[in-house]
Automatic annotation (TrEMBL):
Protein name, as recorded: Uncharacterized protein
Signal sequence interval, chain numbering: 1-17
The organism of origin for this protein: Hydrogenimonas cancrithermarum
Pfam families: TPR_16, TPR_6
Chain positions of TPR repeats: 211-244
Annotated coiled-coil segments of the chain: none
SUPFAM superfamilies: TPR-like
């Protein structure tokens, strides 16, 4: 009986010992996983502590997102730099193409000038040959007299001089750009447009006063009635430098050229721009008269 009672008591005590009971020594421990026995102030501190921990977790997550975005931005920057490199490469290719187009234009101008001069020289040669033929016919009938021979010799020497002059005009390598520019303007004033075109085209190729040289080529085309060519040269000149002293004339002749090719709307716009920009110029006076006729 006593043994059964002791055994029952031990079992009861063991059951009590197996059930965790709060200990007074852990009450108020804020570092515990499940704090208990907290005062109102400690509960407030615990709430703030947990809020701070939540903010720290959120901050770490935001840092991770920022790092991922930074890596993406670095990747995009590499792609952009690669694209910029390609764009620069394309710009260089376009510049080379533009230089090639200018060279082709220069070649066309030079070819036209050479063809015209050569035609003149061939005409002189034809005249000399005709005289030679007449001389041969005369020899068949009678001996040529000294006066006739001298005339024939003079004609041949004139042709030779003209041909040698033509060859020298095409070679400008021994002259400075400044000297060529001065001679080009003299040729223009003398209305020797074929030679002047060669000189101005050479200056453009050497990048010497390109705005002025394009303007003069435009003036030559304008005076020869090649109005579309004149407009193209004027446009190029103005795009290079639009503060030149010849701008009023450039605008006026551009407007007249547009009017001559039938584009009266653009012609009116150029007349109006000229009047507005250079109201006191002689070109503006002419522009007002021409504009009045278009309205």
């Amino acid at each position: 009986m006593m043994r059964k009672l002791s055994l029952s008591l031990l079992i009861a005590l063991g059951a009590v010992a197996g059930t965790p009971e709060p200990s007074a020594f852990g009450a108020g421990n804020l570092d515990s996983a499940n704090p208990y026995g907290l005062s109102e102030e400690e509960q407030h501190i615990l709430k703030n502590k947990r809020a701070i921990e939540a903010l720290q977790k959120s901050f770490l997550k935001q840092q991770q997102i920022v790092q991922e975005n930074r890596e993406r931005i670095d990747g995009l920057q590499s792609i952009i730099e690669g694209l910029n490199g390609k764009i620069r490469s394309y710009d260089r290719a376009l510049k080379r193409l533009d230089d090639l187009n200018r060279s082709v234009d220069d070649l066309h101008l030079r070819t036209d000038a050479l063809a015209k001069t050569q035609e003149e020289n061939f005409e002189q040669l034809r005249t000399v040959l005709q005289e030679l033929g007449s001389l041969i016919d005369s020899i068949n009938e009678k001996y040529v007299d000294k006066e006739r021979f001298n005339q024939l010799e003079t004609a041949f020497l004139e042709f030779k001089h003209a041909y040698e002059t033509f060859l020298k005009k095409g070679d400008l390598s021994g002259k400075s750009n400044a000297k060529i520019f001065s001679e080009a303007k003299k040729l223009f004033r003398k209305k020797q447009y074929s030679d002047a075109k060669i000189y101005f085209a050479h200056l453009i190729k050497n990048h010497y006063k390109p705005a002025t040289s394009n303007y003069y080529l435009g003036e030559i085309a304008y005076r020869e009635g090649r109005y579309k060519d004149a407009i193209a040269y004027y446009k190029k000149s103005a795009s290079l430098y639009d503060k030149s002293s010849f701008m009023p004339t450039l605008l006026l002749h551009t407007a007249i050229s547009l009017e001559r090719i039938g584009d009266k709307k653009q012609a009116s716009q150029f007349y109006e721009s000229l009047i507005q920009l250079y109201p006191k110029s002689k070109s503006a006076t002419i522009a007002k008269k021409n504009l009045a006729k278009l309205r």
